[in-house]
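Exam revision sheet. Question 4 asks you to relate a sequence to its structure. Input first:
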Amino acid sequence: MQSPYELREHALSQLQAGPRGWLEGGVLKGSTRYLNATDLESTAIVPNVQDLPLYEKNVTSDLLRGALIVCPMGHLTQFHADGELGVARASHELGIAYSISAMSRYDPSRLKPYFSDSVSLQIYPLGIDHVLAEIEAAKKLGIQTIVITVDGPSVGLNYNKHGKYDARKVGAYHTKRITRNSQRGDCRVGINDYLRIRDAFDGTLVVKGIMSTLDAKRFLSFGYDKLWISNHGGRVFESNVSSATALKTIRSNFVTDCELVVDGGVLTGMDVLRYIGLGADKVGIGRLIIYGLIIGGYAGVRDILGNLLNELDLCFRQSGHTNIETLRMNTYIKKRD
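Answer key, structure tokens:
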């Protein structure tokens, strides 16, 4: 079995320069994307060997499975013809939550056979009328969770993308809706608009792109249900603030107040466990899913997710912790030299 690192290299070797740059490039020099990975790798978990015999595999496996959210970028058909359809199918079969990108090449109605209560739709706030229309469409499909993605207000400047390659213009769009989303300009909504969005949707409302306690408090005061900590994979703004650092800070201010989702830099089950230890309730998986898609389409994604679940279960078992609370008390980010 290939390691996730070998898998990544194998997948990238199959890509032309254009899609490879689109997938791997961070904004500007990519230092924020790099920090996502290095701060996660610098996260330490102190083992608790005393309780190793108390580990209950079935109970813990279900708990950890529920902590995953598949959330790759859009435009997946540039990597494999199965695209979002293959990702949705694999996630559904393994009982893992799937968050559909606003930049999906497939209209959400095409993915409906693989919907469950855990599916969510990400919407870019391109304007209040646009958001409200997307919410109404989601309601008709029975989608119960909406994610408002605020961490990509405009397209970032990326020195690593190859030439004039633009995935938003590659291949056919399936609907006028996808064309409109993919050719978007800047996101333009204000405070009153975020309140209108809350009023317009009775289901679970998540805001994605939170990186500070101030923003966390603001959106909770608007009545949003969950916070998604994300710097868009380091693809939009070179903040030099990693998702791990933001998660640790925000969780310390909201110990039990709300559910926190996080993404950025995950390649292994141990990475997922580290994020849970730092305070995440759910962990988003992005590029790793695409590596599987590149190599084997739907089957490749399913293999990746299956291996990730097994690895996560094994890492949790070997940590010796029998519950999330003790895990969090023994997890910290090591200081850099």
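Marking note for examiners. The two ends are 35 Å apart (CA to CA).
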